[in-house]
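Input chain follows. Return structure tokens only.
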Amino acid sequence: MSELKASILDEVRRYHRERQGDSPFVPGETEIWPTGAVLDADDRVAMVEAALDLRIAGVQSAQKFESALARRLKRRKAYLTNSGSSANLLAVSALTSPQLGDRRLRPGDEVVTVAAGFPTTVAPILQNGLVPVYVDVELGTYNPTVERVAEAIGPRTRAIVVAHTVGNPYEVAEMAGLAKERGLFLVEDNCDALGSTYDGEPTGTFGDLATVSFYPAHHITMGEGGCVLTSNLVLGRIVESLRNWGRDCWCEPGQSNTCRKRFEHQMGTLPAGYDHKYIFSHVGYNLKATDTQAALGLSQLDKLDGFVAARGRNWRRLREGLDGLPHLLLPEATPRSEPSWYGFVVTVDPQAPFSSGDLVNFLEDRKIGTRRLFAGNLLRHPAYMERPHRVSGPLTNSDLITEQTFHIGVYPGLTDEMIDYVISSMKEFVTASG
């Protein structure tokens, strides 16, 4: 590192320290966010260093990040993207590739998913001309059971695409077993669950494909960003092609002829020797991330274990502090799992003398941030009401979640003092409401 560069980065650290003055927590005045990124001096330096080196394309740091995350999640390949939603789009789109032969998903084929989730788990199903089959979830875990998914499988069902809700794993080993038994693909939407485990194994390691998000609300951040992971090299190559405009070539930006036969290919009806860098085998996208994003991701990845531990402590403090409070259904971890919690979910009993809206308004007035459990029942939203779908069984719990469920924060930026204020506020409201 040059002397000048080292001096600049030292100044960046000093700048960070001066910007990070501690402000005392003032109950009712200080915002208690439901989600948020925790960024330190190393993160700021990582981004500035990438900028100083003018690493504008996703190469050096991106490749390092992909390798590091693949090792962490015990996958052979990882493909960095510009968002977790793009990762979901790539994962589902990969299943439609002609390169899969008879296993490819075709328009009209069905994909089992849940009604109560985040839209971009389901959107790629519709965007690929596939038909989502909606199942209900369980209250408490907010995940589907394997039995519900099994009952939803029909003659045209070809895949299962389910997210680990707010970091709480579903019965993913059993779900993977069901998919294998029925000849279905399994896509794990792991965007809210990086760091979670099931049967001692990381979530994101059970499916044919898995996705992760690095939006600021998630466990580590790049500002924006996501990733698709797989150990299936055929699927991996398809994901890479779709992410990179649909081209058949696998050279990184700035590289040429890594296959040693750039002008020796003949594909489609193109002339023999057509430049492989401009042969397209998929109708693809440009969904790559930048090296500056990846540099931040590498810095954040080093802190993941600490972030997971902090989320767990905050979740347990809330769970213990609110235990026994009437009219509230508190969350439960799925048996045999160790969640990396995204949030703390609360469902208000429909028979309570107050509504979830009443409690949410009370908390928000006290600067305690809340969020709904994402979309609630997606079929009640204008974007999804008239789109092709099938429903398996009643969506009773999904409707209840739409009416009565919200979540509060557990992210590492919250202090014990903040958590205790949340607990005391909820107790005050419930007690006063009878």
